[in-house]
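This section describes the prediction task in plain terms. A model, or a person checking by hand, is given the sequence of a single protein chain and must write out its three-dimensional structure as a string of tokens. No templates, partner chains or ligands are provided. The sample shown here is typical of the held-out split.
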Amino acid sequence: MAESEAGSYRYDAFTRTWIVVAPERRHVRVVGSRPEELPGLDGPCAFCPGNERMAGKAVHVSAGEGEASWEVRVVQNLFPAVRADLRLGPLPPGGRARPAFGVQEVVIECPEHDFDLPDLPLPRLARLLGVYRDRLRVLSAREGIAHVALFRNRGRRSGSSQPHPHAQIAATQVAGREQATRWRTAREYQSKHGETLLAATLRQELALGIRVIRETPRFVALTPFAPHGPYETWIAPREPSPCFRVTADEALPGLAELLSYSIRAALLASHRSAYNLVFRVPPAGALGHPAAFWLLEIRPRGGGPAGLELTSGLDVVAVSPEQCAAEMRAAR
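The expected answer:
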């Protein structure tokens, strides 16, 4: 077996976890149904035009063009895990419970029921990114909010329960384990090395080039050295930027083009249709911290964790990120 084809342990410096790259498992296939497809509906789509009253209270509406009455709608989540009407209070000393204070919103990304992000014309996708940014900015400024999660699930394998294209935003009073680990790691790295972990990573990746998928003047798309799933793709700003919520309007068209390309390439190369898009951002109050940075993460979804992953916590990735990058660069 060639060295490039050999399995390897790889350490993810962002999450402080090990993963296993196991190319020999690439051709292991599970035969059966296609659960990565979109979920179905039992009745009318609450996110389609004409059904606006079913979707929840709107907190933002972008006006549509032509016959469309709206282009993007942001509504309060009808089934929230956290709620703004609960009493905001500090965690009592030694306590293990408090009211689940927070805000959850749904971004209905377009009137078209069957579209996905790459189907949107680039000017509309750029405007949608502006809505993401603005809602992230608004919720990060809310009293009592510590972290804001911005993400979208597409397909049943990704956790989606609604086929109409949408994203979700969850602003919480506490940090989740992933958020806490990433921020602690970022702070410690910056304190020790004098630069952000992302800046150091991008400098090395751009110099090496083998995991870079595409570059633009403002952004770069790449596969990470230690991915947690095959064809995982990052999009990051080339110049230091503390959070997506400060991204300038003039940067959004270029980001839209690279995001559209990267989603298409990742799904085409992986032969999958389900994926998650995650905005990795620092805590709400960390905008001025020198360790702060942001990136977008696209993760195609296929089979879920199996015995080794569940037992050990090691993610097993069957295609090396170098091979993934090569396939995505060639995707058409």
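For orientation: The helical segments are 52-55, 122-140, 177-193, 197-208, 252-270, 307-312, 321-330.
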